[in-house]
Design brief:
- The chain has helices at residues 2-11, 17-37; strands at residues 38-42, 57-61, 75-81, 85-93, 98-102, 105-108, 111-112, 126-130, 135-139, 153-156, 160-164.
- The protein is α+β, with helices and mostly antiparallel strands and 166 residues long.
- A hairpin with a 2-residue loop joins β5 (98-102) and β6 (105-108).
């Protein structure tokens, strides 16, 4: 009889002030964590494959770049339009560096960059360009296909929301 009562109390608790306070506190905590610190995101598209798969779920860790800017090789979440439309890209060059694509090789300051995360060959060509101050140069890991079909380039550090949690 006591077990039956415990089960009933678990699924239909008494609405005491303490219970209502706990529910309100948990709701506020969940809002703060998942609305401002760990923003859920669903990866749509193939630009970061094989590192991140289309349709996967991840979280944007907002505090990642609180004390230091992104480094070369970091994967970042970029605010594209509003806070809910974001892009997931890899930082390949930092401010004041020169970046270029030549016959499918990424060159930073004239030196080829080792990119073990790029799996498929590509034949991109893009003349050298200097990364402006307070920006980084980003590109996706999946560079198969024409260069015209990809979003990449310089991004202001202010538009970087954080990094994927895993």
């Amino acid at each position: 009889m006591n077990i039956k009562r415990s089960i009933r109390q678990f699924f239909l608790p008494s609405l005491t002030p303490a219970f209502l306070f706990r529910v309100g506190f948990i709701t506020l905590l969940a809002y703060l964590i998942f609305g401002h610190l760990l923003i859920p995101l669903r990866i749509q598209g193939y630009s970061m494959e094989p590192t991140y798969q289309n349709g996967a779920i991840n979280f944007c860790w907002r505090l990642r770049y609180l004390f230091s800017p992104p480094k070369r090789g970091d994967v970042v979440v970029i605010r594209f339009a509003g806070q809910h439309v974001t892009l997931l890209k890899r930082v390949v060059a930092l401010e004041n560096e020169e970046v270029e694509f030549r016959e499918g090789r990424l060159l930073v300051n004239g030196t080829p960059l080792e990119e073990p995360y790029v799996r498929s060959p590509y034949r991109w060509n893009l003349p050298p360009r200097k990364v402006e101050p307070q920006t980084v140069y980003v590109v996706g890991d999946n560079r198969s296909g024409s260069i015209e079909n990809h979003f990449f380039g310089q991004v202001s550090l202010k538009r970087i929301l954080g990094s994927p949690l895993w």
